[in-house]
Amino acid sequence: MKKGWRAALVVLGLVLAAVSVWQLASYRREQGRLDRLARGSGVLAYEPGLPEGLAREPSPWHARLLLARQLFASASSASPVEPEEADRSAAATLRRLELARRLAASVAVERPSSWEAAMLQGAAAYLGWSMQRDRRLLTEPGEWEAPLLRALEVAPGRPEPARFLAAAYMELWPALSRGKKETARGLVARALADRRTFEALIEPWLQTADSSGERTQAFSAVPLQPWAWERLQQIEARDADWEGYRQARLHWYASLERSMRASLAEAEARLQGGDAVRAHLLFLSVLQVPPRRRFLPYVESSLSQCPPGPGGGSFAPALQAWLDWSLDLCLWKGCPVPEPVLRRLAGLSGGLAPTTAAQAAVLGGDLAEGEVFERRAEEPWSAVWGPYGIARARALAKRRDLAEAGQALDNLHPLWKQSAPYWMTRLALARAAGDGLGEAEARRRLTDLRRSEWSFREWMLRDPAPRLELVPAVAAPGFTIEILEAPDAGAAVEVRLDGEVAAISPVRRSTALVVRRPLKPGPAYLLEIEAVSGGRLVPGTVRLLPPSP
Fold this sequence. Notes:
The chain is of the alpha+beta class.
């Protein structure tokens, strides 16, 4: 019995050895065939080391796939310089594409799970027919489309199949039916979600949409990611398409808010899971957006929950922008965030100017720390210290140190004694002191500040956004801003009122920008205008719009 088993094992071993020898011989023959195909196709001019690469592949189908890949790559990059070479080169390119298609198709049959084989099969068929303007692209789309769709199904995480399909649909766009366009638009959206694909295809996609009058629909395929809409703004600004720029910027704000929500949720989850270091970084990353009122809930939540850790560094510019924005609104309209949040923001910003640090300390509830910065200053009552002086006077009045608060206001630079924040503080102080004459004087001066028109001289020219103190005399449905200087091609400007976007509009030199935002009489508004598309902008006269009939 044992001898029988031994004999069977010997026979099996001989059979396996024979099969191995046969497979090796077969592979050698296949290697020789592929080597001859490579040399005859002309692909070695683009990839001289291909024969060695084919010899190193572990199996025949790997070798066929490698050759198909190189054939397709050489055909895609072929670009003869001399016109007389064009015909010969085109014919050689078509032969390489057909050979690549056949090789890839054979691998796809043998290895159905190979996404690359399916993609090369479809891509080579499409590119060859496209070069010949062959109507089979439309009459027999299954020859090229089906393999690409199969590659997309087999490897949904790979960007290449979606990228090639999207580019193909763009080329055929005018000839596609309405239903096919809807399907193709979904595929384009899927392709553009990959950032590298987005960079490669966004401009061809916009050109495709422009040629068919579908620019607005083209935006529906753009991913709701800040980097995508930031790139769209750059393209629209370059092309001076200001309505497109406005739409892109609105989408950009929406994508920033979505990104903030996601980062905040992840930071909270990290913190609950005990990963305080990563949570700290994520909470700070929430603030990497331009300061606007719409983002305040996320910023306040982030600063309230952020665990102890360093700030500054790469986060410093965004943190300081939010701090400056908050301090401005504290001066003009009332602080947008509670004292603990303001203190945290100032503490994380790092490297603050003494005037900013002093103002932040007082508004954060630490008057003594603010006064330390004041005592160290060489000129504590120069114009740049005006916002701190007003904040200090308000803090002293809150503590009922009315005489010292009045002295703080008396010491302000004359420039600030003409402003609405100064007289609003004077009014509050006079009321607290029961000073009827002082209260009447403050009311009169505030009334004098009420206007229906402001000249270009009253703008504070700060980079990048000039600002204007606006105290309307009457209720108005909006206002106009004269544009004294703007880029020759125009610009897209963002008008902000009390820290929130009031309008995003195109402007040109010597035009009047109409902003429809209701204003109430009496309170001071902080008006800012910025050329967000780039270029120099100089605002001029501002006039209230007449009341609606």
